[in-house]
Every structure is written in structure tokens, then in C-alpha cells.
Amino acid sequence: MFKLTSLNLNGIRSATTKGVETWLEQHAPDCICVQEIKAQMPDLAGKFEILAGMKGHFHLAEKKGYSGVGVYTRHEPTAVIAGYGSEEFDAEGRYLEVRFDTPKRKFSVISCYFPSGSSGPERQEAKYRFLAEFYPVLHRLQAERDFVLCGDVNVAHQEIDLKNWKSNQKNSGFLPEERAWVSRVIDELKLVDVYRHLHPDTTGEAYTWWSNRGQAYAKNVGWRLDYHLATPAIAHLARETAIYKDQKFSDHAPITIDYDLSL
After folding, report:
1. N- or C-end of the chain: fewer Cβ atoms within 10 A?
2. Which of these is catalytic: 43, 101, 146, 152?
């Protein structure tokens, strides 16, 4: 069984002070995809290159304290690709692909952090540019290899993916254009939203992010923003999923899916 976790750390230094490494030692995934590392290589050196016995591979932002993604893995990749070839977004540290290829199989695990548009119209336009750029990247990848893309997509796809869907229809993260992009990825590219493949109807149990405002976490006023998007051959190997909420390492909860495959 291949246990794959995804977690937006909201800062690796912050998450480690809140016990994420101890939890990973107990939880023991094969790989964890992380987003919003919010650090540069000198910050990681000697401290965070290895986490809970897993070796880290990173794509970090040029801007300090911003974005950054990585994959920590117990298995040695056959290749590591940082960035997807974007003039605009590769500087923001949003895409890290680790390949575990064999003579008989091409398989990638991807950690990805989609832009947030919640800070204002300028970032929302950047988010739309990212979605427009990234769709053909997924299309090309899907034609070449099997993969699981894990990460903070910053979009709640359906009404069941957030608590207050009615009042959020004009807010970033639940805009019609964003939701339509996720639908296209599922309907046209045939990628599978693996959590929904296993749990098509859950609502409150499905949330992975809560605002720090008010008592959103205590009242479970959440959003499902963190996904495993997989090619069909991999998605059909998914056996069970868990969203861990007993401890709070960041404003996101880790989502883990077990796949019936070995690297």
C-alpha cells in the first residue's frame, strides 16, 4: 500500500513547532506533498531537508516567506522537476514533480500550490492566468504518464465542498469560472478527484481549510480546498482516505489516501 499525504503547512517553521514531524513519524506516509513552505534553502539547510525520516525535494519562491512546495519521500525518485515552465509562476514556487519510473510504468507524484485570489482583483486575475496556463500542462502530462497531483487548489468545486456556499458565490475560491475549471479537468481530461471518488456525498467531514477569523474551526465552517487529482489508473487503486483533525498544524488539515500500489 502506498500512503500519500498532502498538507498546506502555512509555514514549515510554524508547523514543526506545532508537532507535525512527531505526527508524521507516527502516521508514517510513504510521501507527503507540502505547500506554503514559506522558506528559502538556507532556512531549510540542516533543519528541514529531512522530515520524519523522509528526504525532501523542493521548489521554493524567490520572494522570502512566500509560497513554496515540496515532496518528502521514503523512496528515491528517478527524476525531480521543479516548476512547470511558466515565466510568471515558476518564480513563485508552485510545482514540484517527483517521478518514480520503472521500465514498465511511468508514475509521478506532484505537489502543487494554486494561487489564491482572495487578497484582491489583481491576484484573482493572476489566479485565472495560472489556471489557463496549467490546464495544458495537465493535458500533456496525462497523455504521457500516470500521476497524482496533491495540493491546495484554492477552489471548492461543489456546493457540498464548503459550509456557506450561498454567501460565497461571488468570493474567490467558489467563483463560477474557478469551479468550471475543476469540472473541465474532471470531465475533459478525465482526471479523478480521488476523495470524491471514495466519498461522493460527505460535507462537514470533507473540509480541509478553515478561516482564522471567528470560530470557524470550532464550528467547522470550512472549505474543501486540498485535493488528490489522479489519472484513472491510479485513482482506481485508491482504497481509503483520512482527513486528520485531532491536531492543528496549520489552517489546513492533512489529507491522506492509501493506494494499492508499490513503487
Report:
1. N
2. 152
Contact 55, 73 (CB under 8 A): yes
Backbone angles phi, psi at 60, to 5 degrees: -105, 155
The answer to whether 108 and 141 are in contact (CB under 8 A) is yes
Q: What is the pLDDT of residue 214?
A: 85
Strand segments, DSSP code E, in the chain are 2-8, 31-35, 50-51, 54-59, 69-73, 79-82, 95-99, 107-113, 146-152, 192-193, 209-210, 222-223, 226-230, 238-243, 255-259
Whose cell is 510504468? That residue is 105
What is the pLDDT at residue 110? Answer: 99
Provide the 3-class DSSP secondary structure of residue 121.
helix
For residues 125 and 108, what is the distance between their CA atoms, to the nearest angstrom? Answer: 29
User: Cell numbers 500516470 correspond to what residue?
Assistant: 146
CB 52 within 8 A of CB 15: no
Which pTM does this prediction carry?
0.98
Q: Output the CA torsion sign for 62, 65, 67, 70.
A: positive
CA pair distance 227, 193, nearest whole angstrom: 7
Q: What is the pLDDT of residues 35-91, one digit of tens each?
A: 999 999 999 999 999 999 999 999 999 999 999 999 999 999 999 999 999 999 999
Q: At CB < 8 A and 24+ separation, what contacts does 215-219 make?
A: 217/248
Answer whether 111's CB lies under 8 Å from 93's CB.
Answer: no
Is 152 catalytic? The answer is yes
